[in-house]
Amino acid sequence: MTEFRPDYVYDMTVTWGDCDAAGISYYAKTFDWFTNARMQLMAEHGFPYMDVFHRAGISLVCLKADCAYKKMLKPEERIAVHASLTELTRSRLAFGYRVFKRDGTLAAEGATAHAYVGDDGAPFNLKRRHPRLWDRLTANWPALGEADARAEKGQ
């Protein structure tokens, strides 16, 4: 997994609806938690999805989602979902996630990768199509923007 820099912590309680019949969190619900943490992360940094991306005709389409489950989670457990932007390029973003139990035990760790896709369903270069948004993103996460610039130059 890419270096993890927690940018946002999404605190929540596991609900019965998050669990299977055995009372253990259902694996697919973890991706809902990742989505919630990712949306809050972006909003916290001044990039609310609906206002900044959706209304501009930009969809962040998930290309890959992965999760390694370490510990069971049960209803009424308090957890913290740590989310971080781990990659920012002209064509995609990637996020890392870690789910911790209240006692600090790592319960799950995952990642998602997303492409910028227009209303026509085709991926595009964000820097070319929305240069002001690209500048804002790279100003907010300068190390990631610099890594993309180095990759563009072949360094």
TrEMBL record:
InterPro entries, A to Z: HotDog_dom_sf, YbgC/YbaW
SUPFAM superfamilies linked to this entry: Thioesterase/thiol ester dehydrase-isomerase
Gene3D superfamilies documented for this protein: Hotdog Thioesterase (3.10.129.10)
Pfam families: 4HBT_2
Keywords: Hydrolase
Nucleus recorded as keyword: no
Organism this protein belongs to: Paenibacillus artemisiicola
Name of the protein this chain belongs to: Acyl-CoA thioesterase
Origin: domain of life: Bacteria
